[in-house]
Specification:
336 residues; alpha+beta; 8 helices; binds 2,5-anhydro-1,6-di-O-phosphono-D-glucitol; binds manganese (II) ion
Length: 336
């Protein structure tokens, strides 16, 4: 894969399309559409404090969460951008009750890909001017082209992903993605609306000193997780580790990948399955993590080997630097 600094994302997509495992033209178009939607959402996110877009949209999504206005805006932008370009046959979103079928009645449409998105991740941070993100995950459909997509096309294990990535709307806006050949990060120059390759071949350091978990829920965690958190806080060697938790998975993951760290969203005595969604959050992040020399587990099982049973399924999620995830696993296994 080509890694020329200052290369634009557009140039990078064209130069590397031969290395895509599958029909390269379509996947390139798809990444291009995501790039476009990301710029539109970025523009809106950046002026969130200026216009009357803050606050809640007044509806509740299938997860029982209040939908923020930007949640709805980002959801519409990503769906419309993808749907209008004849590149995907189906879309599933955290913000939609059911999956969306595209061009099901038109035999000319031979689109092979389905996309799953978390249009705005960390949306509770919008009101307080803290980083948010978008997460996407791409699969080839398993049912025949030219027929309407079915639930089966979306309920594939993460190990079948052909591409995944995120956009982080932070101090800079970045698009980070993988097509199964490493992870590359592109930073937006907002003056001209162009993403540049700024972080080629991103890798989690094997070791890290940051742990990210909502410690307010500590008393509800499984004993193995509690013991690992205590281990992180011990005064030994390079410990105590630093605790950093933004509350936007994208931003917490992004920092940990660059600096070395572990992200944890365990199940608890209150939420038996954890909080994060397997299809829109955990699988794409797990694919990125493994492509960047990191690990992602649900506790006992590799995240990407879990066979999904429903669209909005939640799973416990532990992800980050290899040695840290392995250490956590030692603690978890003590109580199995
Ligand atoms: P979303 O905004 O897409 O619903 O996701 C929120 C997720 C994730 O981004 C974050 O890591 C986690 O929820 C934070 O949850 P807690 O507030 O329970 O820590
Ligand atoms: Mn949400
Ligand atoms: Mn999310
Ligand atoms: Mn979301």
């Amino acid at each position: 894969m080509q890694h020329k600094k200052n290369q634009t994302l557009g140039e990078f997509i064209i130069e590397n399309q031969d290395s895509f495992q599958y029909s390269s033209g379509e996947l390139s178009k798809l990444i291009n559409a995501i790039r476009l939607a990301a710029k539109v959402v970025n523009h809106e996110v950046n002026k969130a404090g200026l216009v009357d877009i803050l606050g809640k949209a007044g509806e509740t999504n299938i997860q029982g969460e209040d939908q923020q206005k930007l949640d709805v805006f980002a959801n519409e932008k990503f769906i419309n951008t993808l749907a209008n370009r004849e590149i995907v046959c189906g879309i599933a979103s955290e913000e939609e009750d059911d999956f969306i079928t595209i061009n099901s009645n038109d035999e000319r449409h031979q689109n092979k890909y389905v996309v799953l998105i978390d249009p705005l991740d960390g949306s509770s941070n919008v009101d307080v001017n803290v980083s948010v993100g978008t997460i996407f995950s791409i699969y080839r459909r398993v049912t025949p082209v030219g027929t309407p997509v079915t639930l089966e096309d979306f309920l594939q294990p993460g190990n079948q992903q052909v591409a995944a990535g995120y956009v982080v709307y932070g101090t800079s806006t970045m698009l980070v993605y993988t097509t199964g050949d490493g992870v590359n990060g592109f930073t937006l120059n907002p003056a001209i609306g162009t993403f540049y390759l700024s972080h080629p071949n991103m890798q989690f350091p094997e070791d890290g000193t940051i742990y990210s978990v909502n410690e307010g829920k500590y008393r509800h965690f499984h004993q193995g997780v509690k013991d690992y958190i205590k281990y992180c806080q011990e005064e030994v060697g390079d410990r105590p580790y630093t605790s950093r938790y933004i509350g936007s998975l994208v931003s917490d993951f992004h920092r940990n990948m660059i600096k070395g760290g572990i992200y944890m969203y365990p199940k608890s005595s209150v939420t038996q399955e954890g909080k994060l969604r397997l299809l829109y959050e955990c699988n794409p992040m797990a694919f990125l993590a493994e492509q960047a020399n990191g690990l992602a587990t649900g506790g006992r099982t590799r995240i990407m080997d879990i066979k999904p049973t429903e669209l909005h399924q939640r799973v416990p999620f532990f992800c980050g630097s290899k040695n840290m995830v392995n250490k956590l696993q030692e603690f978890l296994e003590k109580y199995h």
